[in-house]
Design brief:
CATH topology of the domain at 137-271: Immunoglobulin-like
CATH class of the domain at 137-271: Mainly Beta
Shape: elongated
Helix content: 25-40%
Strand content: 15-25%
Largest sheet: 5 strands, mixed
Radius of gyration: 29 Å
Number of helices: 5
Strand order of the largest sheet: 3-2-1-5-8
Structural class: alpha+beta
Length: 295
């Protein structure tokens, strides 16, 4: 059987080119992660943090990553050392030692000290995320199957936010991420979110702003965040399985400069203004006795 050397070389060259191109694409995607405010293909790290809470949470994550890496390397090295040094050998009688006071003290005290070191920045972050901090505005968010409703109590406007179908995407709109009506906020603002639900459990999740709150019907959860300066979009999604269209509940927070936000607000008050019912349901104003008589 004759082997065609030229054919084999061509096959190997094509495979090598394919591997190199894939590796370059992977490296390129990782190098672009620093400029992302939304999920990216092959993303290996967290999204760039925006605001003080997200920055502190990212710092704690990076610190814990170093700690657990050092612990893992130490344990792995210890296992390898024990396996090699105390492997079964002919003519060697193994030690029958069952207790060592110094070692037992060390492996009790050292983990406690590690936990104390971890606890300090953890409690600081927990205190920072408490919802009792002074804020500039309040927004109510309601999760429903399968869209979000945003309400601005002080401005008396509310609107629904639905995913844009793939066939209707325009320009640089992102598939499975962009919505018809984003949540618009002014830049450089501290915002308190009141999160509730209309049906099943949802989750309001915007990773770059460190927002992660469950949306539960009949209950209001609170969280606050700081939207930093700069016109930018922050993408998120519902990450609590909520039904057949769970994947179609994206979140878009659009930060605008103050003047652009004021202009948007004027237009929104016309477009989304809550209409006052001119003929309210009279049954709602009847006394209990009258209601019983009607029944």
């Amino acid at each position: 059987m004759k082997i065609n050397i030229q054919t084999l070389l061509c096959n190997w060259n094509s495979k090598l080119i394919f591997c190199i191109s894939g590796l370059l694409a992977f490296i390129f995607s990782i190098s672009n992660l620093a400029f992302a405010s939304e999920p990216k293909p092959w993303q290996m790290d967290l999204q760039p943090p925006a605001g003080i809470i997200a920055e502190k949470a990212t710092d704690l994550h990076n610190f814990l990553l170093v700690v657990i890496t050092l612990i893992s390397v130490f344990v792995l090295g210890l296992l390898i050392y024990v396996c090699i040094k105390y492997k079964e050998q002919p003519g060697v009688k193994p030690s029958k030692t069952s207790h060592n006071t110094i070692i037992e003290i060390i492996w009790t005290v050292v983990p406690v000290l590690i936990l104390v070191v971890i606890a300090v920045p953890s409690f600081k972050l927990l205190y920072l995320t408490e919802a009792d901090k002074p804020v500039d505005m309040v927004i109510k968010v309601s999760g429903a199957q399968w869209y979000w409703n945003y309400e601005y109590p002080d401005q008396e406007i509310s609107f629904d936010s639905y995913i844009i179908a793939e066939a209707d995407l325009k320009g640089d709109q992102k598939r499975m991420l962009d919505v018809d009506n984003p949540l618009v906020v002014p830049e450089g603002t501290k915002i308190k979110f009141l999160i509730t639900g209309n049906d099943v459990m949802h989750s309001f999740f915007v990773p770059s702003l460190a927002l992660q709150v469950y949306s539960i019907a009949g209950r209001i959860n609170e969280i606050w965040t700081e939207v930093p300066l700069g016109k930018k979009k922050y993408y998120g999604q519902c990450n609590q399985i909520c039904g057949v269209n769970h994947a179609y509940m994206p979140i878009v927070i659009q930060a605008l400069p103050k003047n652009e936000y004021e202009q948007w607000l004027k237009e929104a008050k016309v477009k989304f203004a809550n209409k006052i019912n001119s003929s309210p349901n009279k049954l709602a104003f009847l006394e209990k006795k009258e209601v019983k008589e009607i029944k």
